[in-house]
Design a protein that fits this description.
Elements (H helix, E strand, L loop, with lengths): L27 H9 L2 H38 L6 H5 L17 H5 L4 H4 L13 E6 L3 E2 L15 E2 L8 H18 L3 E6 L13 H11 L25 E4 L5 H16 L5 E6 L4 H11 L7 E5 L8 H17 L8 H7 L9 H4 L4 H4 L58 H4 L1
Parallel strand pairs: 1-4, 1-6, 4-5, 6-7
Antiparallel strand pairs: 2-3
Helix pairs in contact: 9-10
């Protein structure tokens, strides 16, 4: 006959309490302890506790995994100018964190860290500005005010070899024309754009700041105090207070994009109209590619082209097509080689722009990197050496498809440009 299971075999009360007399009746607590100490139940309890520990560990790991994924998604997505935008940077907007008694409701809603927002105070007239006039930089002027008489000479400029021989006169013309456009419109803000792009021993001086310094030296932006507001009548802001610098752009696409972000920093609003003053050979690049990439309305965009005063510009235009227009046609934001390599080489001082913080509405646009798409040769052109910019008059590059302050409904497309074709006027005809 097989023995009974240990859980059913009879046990004497003295099994686990040998010091007790045989006739002693166990208390309820002692009975419970004796039951738990039985071998079968003790094994079951150990297994139960082990399963409980493993389950707790599993739940903790799952919780950590989901929280990490959620935080990553939060930090990498686009945020409007609201409290949700500031949360992406771990900024606390809850009551009782100290800032609430020091800031305005607008500052709380801006999405900009309060340690930065509270250092900004804008005259109310800045919010009325709506026209951005942008002059992209091409070189760095190192002169002083007393040297301005020789501004058209190369001596006070940091230049590339190809820029010698008359280019500095064109840069001065760009600056002067930018100020002229500023004078025409009391609701305009002039922005000189360009970073510290030159390698040492060149100083870490941004192109934009050198242009601004030169404009002052030329007497184009005389220092004028801000006029007082007399009742309801508001005098327009003087020229020098409507001129700013954008000191981080490393290429022409960033000239336009970062200047829009800088306009927002200065005025608190985004421009409704844009005028760019630059080289005439770059008009198609800015109008058909950069403007299109940013989905800025064509009807609100103007380009003023001023070229070098030389008899033959054919090499300038062929160089623009090969090294400027076509690379940006293939890579609208310049995030692929060779354009990405150019940006890398143009940032020798490891500058980091602040626009993710000051323009949380544009985070997705800043990080937009559409796939590299080699361009289609122009119709009727068999040899690329025979190609020219005129063949690209009707070409429009790819556009960012997300929501933007100047394009609140977004444009048709997935946002990466893959389902958006580059079309040619000749083909449409």
């Amino acid at each position: 006959m097989l023995p009974l299971p240990s859980s059913t075999s009879r046990r004497n009360n003295r099994t686990y309490f040998p010091s007790l007399p045989p006739s002693h009746k166990l208390s309820s607590s002692q009975q419970l302890l004796q039951t738990l100490r039985s071998r079968t139940r003790l094994t079951n309890l150990a297994v139960f506790l082990l399963i409980l520990c493993l389950s707790g560990s599993f739940l903790l790991n799952v919780n950590y995994l989901f929280l990490s994924t959620a935080n990553f998604a939060l930090s990498s997505s686009s945020f409007p100018a609201s409290a949700s935008a500031s949360n992406a940077y771990g900024i606390q907007r809850n009551k009782g964190h100290g800032w609430d008694s020091e800031v305005t409701p607008h500052q709380l809603r801006s999405g900009i860290p309060l340690s930065i927002e509270t250092t900004l105070e804008r005259d109310s007239r800045y919010a009325e500005l709506e026209h951005m006039v942008m002059v992209p930089g091409h070189a760095i002027w190192l002169g002083r005010e007393e040297d301005v008489s020789r501004v058209n000479e190369n001596d006070d400029w940091i230049l590339e070899p190809m820029q010698r021989g008359g280019s500095v006169r064109t840069y001065v013309k760009h600056i002067r024309r930018g100020v002229e456009e500023l004078q025409k419109d009391n609701k305009a803000l002039l922005i000189f754009s360009g970073g510290a792009t030159r390698l040492p021993p060149s100083p870490p001086l941004p192109e934009a700041l050198s242009y601004h310094n030169l404009a002052h030296a030329l007497g184009l932006l005389p220092s004028t105090p801000i006029p007082a507001e007399a009742g309801n009548a508001k005098a327009p802001l003087p020229l020098n207070l409507r001129a700013a610098t954008e000191e981080f752009a490393l290429d022409s696409y960033q000239n336009l994009l970062f200047s829009i972000a800088r306009f927002k920093e200065v005025t608190g609003v985004y421009p409704k109209k844009i005028t760019v003053v630059g080289y005439g050979m770059k008009e198609r690049r800015f109008t058909n590619l950069h403007r299109q990439a940013l989905a800025f309305p064509r009807s609100s965009f103007t380009y003023i082209g001023i070229n070098d005063d030389v008899p033959d510009l054919s090499k300038h235009y062929s160089g623009e097509l090969k090294f400027g227009f076509k690379p940006f046609l293939d890579s609208p934001t310049g995030c692929h080689k060779p354009l990405s390599l150019k940006k890398l080489l143009r940032n020798p001082y490891k500058k980091i722009h602040p626009y993710h913080i000051s323009n949380p509405e544009l985070i997705d646009l800043f990080e937009w990197c559409p796939p590299l798409t080699p361009h289609t040769p122009a119709v009727g052109v068999d040899d690329e050496e025979d190609d020219n910019l005129e063949n690209y008059d009707g070409v429009q590059g790819r556009s960012f498809g997300g929501v933007l302050p100047w394009n609140p409904n977004g444009i048709k497309g997935s946002g990466d440009g893959q389902d958006e074709e580059i079309t040619w006027d000749r083909e449409r005809d």
